[in-house]
Amino acid sequence: MTAPQETRTATMGLDKDSPTRVLTDYEIARALKELPSWRKREGSLVCAWAFPDTRDAVDFLALVAEAAEHQGHHPDVDWRASTIFLRTTSCDVGDEVTLRDVALASLLEFAASDSGAVAVPDRHQDVTLGIETQDPARLEDFWIGAMGYRKGRDGFLVDPEGRNPRIRFEDTATPRANRIHIEKFMSHSGLEALQEALQPHAGAGDRTHAPALSIYTDADGNRVGLNTEVSDEPPAFQ
Fold this sequence. Notes:
The chain is α+β, with helices and mostly antiparallel strands and 238 residues long. The protein has helices spanning 2-12, 25-32, 54-71, 99-113, 136-147, 191-202, and strands at 39-40, 45-50, 76-80, 83-88, 118-119, 126-133, 150-151, 157-158, 166-171, 180-186, 213-217, 223-228. Helix 3 runs antiparallel to helix 4.
């Protein structure tokens, strides 16, 4: 698997001598052009692959372990029957995407293509708990203690194990009566189908910030925000 990784990294033209350098949005978007199974998601790269059966999925886990040892960088893995969910981020630089995350994703992309895997990025979803408040600092210690979380570089409270939903405080002078809401981070490819499913229950929703964010409200005023990556060309060079 070494040769494909070297080829892909050279093609991207990124600085191979700085594996822990945090990549810009432009560099990540350019790298993802060569990684069709992967998506950028909140300081990480994520993917999901479905396999013909459970045995094939288990066999692929061995390839993931081999690639991780080869790179000296280990992704978060969630095995569900015949589907493998993966996330790679660099925790030591503040949960950001670095060159070593791209290199690991490249190795796994190559391995998956030879394993009968089918990319199912729409199945990789993440949830953030949002809390409206006039004073985020007044609430942080409570939630850090209750959940055993830590404060991330972006200000969100995060599970050190990376398994449970993040918590985001929305600083507002006028909190709603229903202060807690859900933010669902999902693939853009699955957005239209979900919007159609919500239509009978919540109408068209608030699409003021579409296509990156759509907000829907249930009958009691509880909200869910659908956050997606936007499938456009890479942002301007930085």
